[in-house]
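Weekly sync, protein design subgroup
Attendees: M.S., D.O., the rotation student, P.L. (late)

Item 1: inverse folding check
M.S. brought a backbone from last month's batch and wanted to see whether the design step gives back something sensible before we order anything. D.O. pointed out we never logged the input encoding, so this time it goes straight into the notes. Structure tokens as presented (58 positions):
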């Protein structure tokens, strides 16, 4: 089964972390999402909590 994109259509990238403030992916991850393996997509999604913490602690 395909992994759904975490995009919430709020594409603004934080200059310090490089994460999108909406979906917490990097610009490269957002661009490459359709080409990623499901395993890699799951890794990106599982990393969301760590990324959110990093974004909020800046």
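Designed sequence read out in the meeting:
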């Amino acid at each position: 089964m395909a992994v759904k994109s975490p995009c919430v259509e709020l594409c603004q990238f934080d200059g310090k972390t490089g994460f999108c403030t909406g979906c917490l992916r990097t610009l490269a991850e957002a661009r490459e999402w359709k080409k990623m393996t499901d395993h890699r997509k799951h890794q990106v999604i599982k990393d969301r909590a760590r990324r959110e913490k990093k974004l909020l602690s800046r």
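Discussion: Residues 12 and 20 are 5 Å apart (CA to CA). The longest helix spans residues 38-46.
Action: P.L. to compare against the previous round before Friday.
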